[in-house]
Amino acid sequence: MTAVVVNGTTWLGPRHVTVAQVVDVWCPSPKGVAVALNDEVVPTSRWKGTVITDGDRVEIVTAAAGG
Amino acid sequence: MPEWRDDPLVIAGRRLASRLLFGTGGMASLDALHRALAASGSEIATVALRRVDPQARGSLLDVLAELAVSALPNTAGCYTATEAVLTARLAREAFGTDWVKLEVIGDDRTLLPDPIELVAAAEILVDDGFTVLAYTTDDPVVARRLEACGCAAVMPLGSPIGSGLGIRNPHNISLIVEQAGVPVILDAGIGTASDACLAMELGCDGVLVASAITRAQRPERMAAAMRGAVVAGRDAWAAGRIPRRFHAAASSPTDGLIAVDTR
């Protein structure tokens, strides 16, 4: 198991889980979505190839109304 | 149409027919937002970046796309340059734009900008290829520093965000306008249409309005009012107003008055 903090909540995923897999769980239609892994942006093109390790922090964000 | 009607706002080489920028925060529903945004005639609307909500229904980005309005991501809620830079980079990835309305707040009661963190973030983002529109105080020196580090526009506040207090220091706004080599867009504090009109009469190149529209009792109608006010204020500024006088100056001829025996 891999314990990942996704958007502030601890989530238990399989070993060698990728960013793409985490996004798929949290946001099945990721249009207009961006991901940061430990405070660094992970471009969409690298989601499948980026493996998450135990204790990593993932932020998945999108548009919200705001001034 | 007279030729002076073709008077676009140009930011970083992009021509915008509307000088009213729309802030999307505070609207009750996406449907109400759609109607108000259409009434505003704005071509640019700000969006914030937040954690995905798996329960969310409908998309703000779809509303903007239907109206052919460009999203201007902001860094609202950031208190440090580090947070603002990461937020801007995430926004670039999410929305495919390198434009950013840079906000770095220094105080959660007044939401006033932190000029030191703001300039630090602006330097990093400009170096990183962003088109930075910087939300700032009404301090002309800070505005000059932001322009010097390569910001595409400066966005001084009229008064604190959401306060509706209007333009508390019109003289400072005039000083910023006088020295600026980039567009000046008044941001924050607008309460009603006359505030937006005054900003334009002071020579601002544009106005960003959020709460004054989105939290009005009838947002669509207020959006229309703001649209008219920005056009009126721009025309008044370009027309060149008369000087203020202490005493009256008659507008009717003083020669040729009839003689009347008033005894």
Structural write-up:
The complex is a heterodimer of chains A (67) and B (263). Chain A has 67 residues and is mainly beta. Chain A has one domain (2-62): Beta-grasp domain (Ubiquitin-like (UB roll), Roll). Chain A has one helix and five strands, in the order E-E-H-E-E-E. In chain A, a hairpin with a 2-residue loop joins strand 3 and strand 4. By secondary structure, chain B is an alpha/beta fold. Chain B has helices spanning 30-40, 60-66, 81-95, 115-127, 140-148, 170-179, 193-201, 211-214, 219-239, and strands spanning 9-11, 14-16, 20-23, 44-51, 70-73, 99-102, 131-136, 153-156, 185-187, 206-209. In chain B, the strands form three sheets. Chain B has a five-stranded parallel beta sheet. In chain B, helix 1 (30-40) runs parallel beside helix 9. The longest helix of chain B is centred in the last third of the chain and has 21 residues, at 219-239. The interface between A and B is medium-sized, with 23 and 34 residues.
Short description:
Chain A has one helix at 19-26; strands at residues 2-6, 9-13, 33-37, 40-42, 57-65.
What is the share of helical residues of chain B? 25-40%
Mean pLDDT of chain B: 95
Distance between the termini of chain A: 40 Å
Structural domains of chain A: how many? 1
Q: In sequence order, what are the helices and strands of chain B, one letter per element?
A: EEEHEHEHEHEHEHEHEHH
Order of helices and strands of chain A: EEHEEE
Give the N-to-C terminal Cα separation of chain B: 56 Å
| Oligomeric assembly | heterodimer
CATH hierarchy, class of chain A:
Alpha Beta
What is the 3D form of chain A?
globular
What's the architecture of chain A in CATH terms?
Answer: Roll
Helix content of chain A: 10-25%
- In the CATH hierarchy, what is the superfamily of chain A? Beta-grasp domain
